[in-house]
């Protein structure tokens, strides 16, 4: 019988271990856009109601949007960001304000 070398498993040293794939899911920024018609108090209310901001934080972000044109109001998973955008857009439409809310991959 042939004398097979004991430690030759035939894999010629193939590296089988790979880096564990632990890619985090992408995050999405939710943005509020300025317009000329939506009342400031309405925007402040939206930021308190849907983004859990206190009155001072909400007022500050509203003013940033008013002056700069837009601001990021939060960063969320895709599903949560999409829900926030829908909630804000529905709420604004129901109150007949043209407020716009969008999301953008971070
Ligand atoms: N520019 C609006 C006004 O003067 C106020 C406003 C702020 C509107 C922020 C939208 O996202 C907005 N009444």
From TrEMBL:
One Pfam family from the record: ClpS
Residue runs in coiled coils: none
Gene Ontology biological process terms from the UniProt entry: protein catabolic process; proteolysis
Boundaries of every Adaptor protein ClpS core domain copy: 23-102
Keyword entries, A-Z: Hydrolase, Protease
Gene3D superfamilies per the UniProt record, alphabetical: 3.30.1390.10
Domain of life the protein comes from: Bacteria
Keyword Transmembrane belongs to the record: no
InterPro entries: ClpS, ClpS_core, Ribosomal_bL12_C/ClpS-like
GO MF: peptidase activity
Purpose: Involved in the modulation of the specificity of the ClpAP-mediated ATP-dependent protein degradation.
Subunit structure, interactors included: Binds to the N-terminal domain of the chaperone ClpA.
NCBIfam families the record matches: PRK00033.1-2, PRK00033.1-5
Assigned protein family: Belongs to the ClpS family.
Official protein name in the record: ATP-dependent Clp protease adapter protein ClpS
Gene source species: Palleronia abyssalis
């Amino acid at each position: 019988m042939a004398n097979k070398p004991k430690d030759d498993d035939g894999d010629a040293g193939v590296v089988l271990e790979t880096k564990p794939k632990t890619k985090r899911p992408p995050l999405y920024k939710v943005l509020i856009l300025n317009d000329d018609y939506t009342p400031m108090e309405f925007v402040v209310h939206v930021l308190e109601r849907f983004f859990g901001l206190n009155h001072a934080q909400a007022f500050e972000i509203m003013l940033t949007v008013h002056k700069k044109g837009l601001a990021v109001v939060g960063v969320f998973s895709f599903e949560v960001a999409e829900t926030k955008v829908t909630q804000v857009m529905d709420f604004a439409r129901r109150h007949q304000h043209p407020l716009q809310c969008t999301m953008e991959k971070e």
